[in-house]
Design goal:
3 domains; binds alpha-D-galactopyranose; about 750 residues; TIM Barrel; Immunoglobulin-like; alpha+beta; single chain; 38 strands; about 20% helix; Beta-galactosidase, Chain A, domain 5
């Protein structure tokens, strides 16, 4: 039973393989949160709470004469503003009489087979028999506002999802000012918060600090999940590391403005609230109308690695969709860093021909292929080919590339428009802009109001035509600026607080239509690199361009940070030319290949500029990737070094799910004379098995490799790399198995 109701104690218990989540409907009808963590032997965890008179502590008491009861001190499931809990609230309302109170009492609950879905929003799905749903209904007796809390329980995957539906069952309009997806109170323990912060070209860098009495806010108000913060946080025990300690991962499946608030209350109890950002947000609910929040995905596990493994599996199997979700992805060559805007058909065909000779399977034509797109000042919005560059149009080009034996892919940025475009000249009001103001430009472009149906229809028609008329097998869906001037011509002045979320619903709706109609296309998300790298987008695009920074050394840090929440198969990663175009650094092809192969693999350079030796090396890399890709993309990923320690090397490892094979990657980032030996302890192997190391033919037990480790040969030169391929050859002879391992 993954969801259980004990009516005698009014307890609701959710169980996954390695966690328990417990709630209680208390004597006064409030929904209390009791516990989330390691299984605790089927115990009623309400014994953890001890109440006493806090009547003087500034906490109003909600239950008549009972001065020991206060919402301000009680762990709860979904907290509201204005009724005595002064901590971070989950829901904020303005009622028709101007009051801001919503006092939510338990009404009923229901347990359903399968996983709930959320209309218009991405959500974790059940592949059949994997999940159960709990719906708890809460209600404010005065206004009739109803909150339905949804819990999806994936027992074997160790995941609990949460979302809320807010329904106006009253007779007057209610304005929602905040509608979070998750409130998690943790009344015990000493906690750190890890968030993933960054900038363009250095996304998702882990930042860890103690939870404190000042609430920390992790948010984006840029209209996209952003380079600067990511809608994924981890709360972990102060002592937790990769392998040990209580860890809670919380990921919002949403691509727009979000907010996670985490802090300690006056008595040291932790509270984390996560959902759509309430900054600039308002949603009007007329009687009978409802609002659905996006979904937060929760995972509890021992150690950060376990949290990563839970999310990697979940994203690959229960969030990504379409034909490519688990399939091998073709090795691609992208034209952007090869030629930027400077090309015509002959140049593209020359690059493609060289690419084909290297063993590339998919040629991707990046920005610059459409009318008047000679630089980034013009053209966005007009999605037809530049006939000066391509006299035969796209169909002729695609055919020539197909005839070379490669698939064809294309870059688009449908959400944007240049002022210098036919689209903008015809529909200037389709761009987001506030009345009487010139909207801010970003990369010389404006943002189309995806909240408008006619805009979505135009984009659907333009994209569908492009995909239908050409044999397009891959689409890089870009989005190169944040949203400013968020004002929608179709919202009344009082409803402008809805425009940001309506934009996100619009992009999801458009992507849903296109991915459904073109299931054979591999969609890759992108937003100035990894500015919209989130579970919401991964529901539509199984991979996302991880960063515009293709420097292999910087990419190690970016991909390492990204790996805390997201699988390797989701990270678009390319080998580019040296000196690198972003940093000017030169690194060997071996390092660039190793790093790009730890992702959705491809190249982004002009192969015509390579030496014969480099071409041979690339052919070998592609062969190697074909051989290792199952292990890399579907295996378990282990971070072996902590970037925060600034070691002179970085190492990471893949282990197949049956532990039969493994690949260790090590890159020296800073060579030193007379350096200490580099010694790495491997992870995830079968301790009782013997592994053959393909590189030197030696055979070593899994136990030795994990507990003793492996000493690297002396590595010198420019950014040297080392790889170890391990293959299980046999079980360790019985007499050599240590008693502890047998147990
Ligand atoms: C963004 C992308 C790049 C490239 C350019 C093209 O910056 O992240 O990969 O596609 O746009 O303009």
């Amino acid at each position: 039973m993954s969801i259980c109701y004990d009516s005698s104690e009014s307890l609701l218990t959710l169980e996954t393989a390695s966690s328990v989540y417990q709630m209680k409907i208390d004597a006064y009808g409030y929904l209390e949160h009791l516990y989330y963590g390691r299984p605790a032997g089927g115990t009623d965890m309400s014994y953890l709470q001890r109440r006493y008179d806090r009547g003087f502590s500034g906490s109003p008491y909600a239950a008549g004469e009972d001065r020991t009861f206060s919402l301000d001190t009680m762990p709860q499931e979904y907290t509201s503003f204005g009724v005595g809990d002064f901590r971070t609230h989950s829901i904020g309302v303005i009622n028709s009489d101007g009051s801001r109170c919503a006092e939510l009492h338990y009404v009923s609950h229901e347990i359903r087979e399968g996983k709930y879905s959320i209309p218009g929003l991405p959500a974790v799905y059940d592949n059949g028999g994997e999940a159960k749903t709990l719906v708890i209904t809460l209600r404010d007796a005065v206004t009739g506002l109803v909150v339905r809390l949804y819990y999806g329980v994936f027992h074997d995957l160790d995941v609990i999802t949460r979302a809320a539906e807010i329904v106006n069952e009253g007779t007057e309009e209610v304005i929602l000012e905040k509608a979070s997806s998750l409130c998690l109170d943790i009344p015990f323990g000493t906690w750190d918060l890890i968030c993933f912060t960054g900038r363009h070209c250095m996304e998702r860098q882990p930042e860890r600090r103690p939870l404190s009495h000042s609430v920390q806010v992790i948010s984006s108000e840029r209209g996209m999940s952003s380079h600067q913060q990511n809608p994924f946080v981890i709360v972990c025990d102060r002592q937790a590391n990769e392998d040990h300690g209580d860890c809670y991962g919380m990921m919002l499946a949403y691509s727009g403005n979000f907010k996670a608030e985490a802090g300690l209350d006056q008595f040291g109890s932790a509270r984390i609230v996560m959902g759509i950002s309430d900054t600039y947000f308002q949603w009007h609910l007329a009687p009978g109308e409802s609002f659905c929040t996006p979904e937060t995905i929760l995972a509890y596990g021992e150690g950060l690695t376990r949290i990563s493994h839970i999310f990697h599996r979940l994203i690959r199997h229960n969030i990504c969709r379409g034909e490519y979700k688990l399939a091998h992805r073709p090795v691609l060559l992208n034209s952007w860093e090869a030629s930027y805007f400077d090309f015509d058909e002959n140049r593209i065909l020359a690059i493609a021909k060289e690419a084909e000779e290297l063993g590339i399977e998919l040629f991707v034509l990046d920005d610059g292929w459409f009318r008047r797109r000679r630089d980034d000042n013009a053209g966005l919005g007009d999605w037809t080919a530049d006939m000066e560059k391509f006299p035969g149009g796209l169909p002729a080009l695609v055919e020539k590339i197909n005839r070379m034996g490669m698939k064809f892919g294309i870059w688009v940025e449908p959400e944007m428009v240049n002022e210098d475009s036919d689209l903008y000249r015809a529909h200037p009001d389709w761009a987001l802009k506030a009345p009487g103001r010139s909207p801010m430009l970003g990369r010389n472009q404006l943002v189309l109001d995806l909240g408008r149906e006619e805009v979505r229809d135009y984009l659907y028609d333009a994209m569908a035509k492009l995909f239908r008329e050409n044999n397009i097998q891959y689409v890089k869906w870009d989005m190169n600026r944040s949203l400013s001037d968020v004002y929608s011509a179709v919202c009344t002045p009082s409803r402008q607080g809805e425009a940001g979320h309506r934009y996100v619903l619009g992009i999801y709706g458009l992507l849903e239509r296109l991915t459904e109609e073109f299931p054979h296309i591999l969609f890759e998300g992108c937003a100035g690199g990894g500015g919209r790298f989130d579970a919401g987008m991964l529901y539509y695009t199984p991979q996302i361009w991880c960063s515009d920074d293709t420097d292999a050394v910087e990419r190690i840090a970016i991909q390492n940070g990204t790996s805390f929440g997201y699988p390797v198969s989701a990270m678009g990663s390319h080998v580019s030319a040296v000196p690198n175009h972003q940093t000017g650094r030169s690194t060997p092809l071996a390092l660039r290949g190793m790093v790009a192969m730890s992702g959705a693999f491809g190249y982004e350079l002009d192969p015509g500029k390579l030496t014969e030796e480099e071409k041979q090396e690339i052919r070998a890399q592609i062969r190697e990737f074909h051989r290792d890709q199952d292990l890399i993309l579907d295996g378990l990923y282990y971070r072996l070094t902590d970037m925060a320690e600034q070691l002179p090397y970085a190492a990471w490892q893949f282990v197949s799910k049956d532990r039969g094979s493994s690949l260790l990657n090590l890159a020296v980032l800073h060579v030193q004379a007379n350096a200490p030996l580099i010694h790495v302890r491997l992870k995830g192997l079968d301790p009782q098995a013997v592994y053959r190391i393909e590189e030197d033919g030696s055979c070593i037990t899994g136990a030795a490799l994990m507990y003793g480790g492996y000493t690297m040969p002396i590595l010198t030169g420019d950014y040297p790399v080392f790889r170890l391929h391990l293959v299980r050859v046999c079980e360790m002879p019985k007499e050599k198995v240590q008693p502890e391992e047998e147990a």
